[in-house]
Amino acid sequence: MPPPSTVDFDAVLGILRLSHKYDVNYLHKRALMHLETVYSVDHTIYATLYIQAQPHHKQLLSFHLKAIPILAEVDAIWLLPSAYYAVGTHALPSLLAAGPYWDRLPAGMRETCLPLAGIQHQALITVYRFLSDRSTCDDDEPCNIVRLDTISGTIMRRATVAQDPLAEWNTEEWTWMLDVLCPACVRRCRDDHAVAFMQVWNALPRNCGMENWDVLLAKRKAVME
Ligand SMILES: [Zn+2]
Hints:
0% strand
């Protein structure tokens, strides 16, 4: 069944390999379509996918470590930036504790994975610039106090959890902002956040040593259409 039907994603990886090996095109495409619900290729639906799709596999490091070499083997390179990003949301000790999943990963892929947690932690600073920049609205003092309090609390909270810059600032948090900042500041925060989100998104291929999204999506088009 095509998405959004419920599937066993470990089985999907198996089908992806076999359909590639035996050149069964429709099964291959269908497996890729399912994997695109886990590893987004479209920044406009990233946040939605992140919240709705297969939370089990979003969080399961062992699945990502299993998927990456298979995606490379079948040349589904457009799925790799999000797959590597998913690995980067896990702290370094978790990678080393992933046992056989980590040990079986080819050395080059392990080397790609190791810096990701740090890169993505750094990207949180890029994303949160919408809070750390000063307000320039007509009544800036109360807005600046809210920004300062919020960024302080956010840093305290985020310092101990996974580095997941693309998932930062959810719908409830934006709604809350409407009550505590002036409309001009909320608008600027949203604009600044959107710019930073795209910076982080556009950097995903580079972070894992791949060509840019345009090249990867051209490859996708050739396979999927
Ligand atoms: Zn303001």
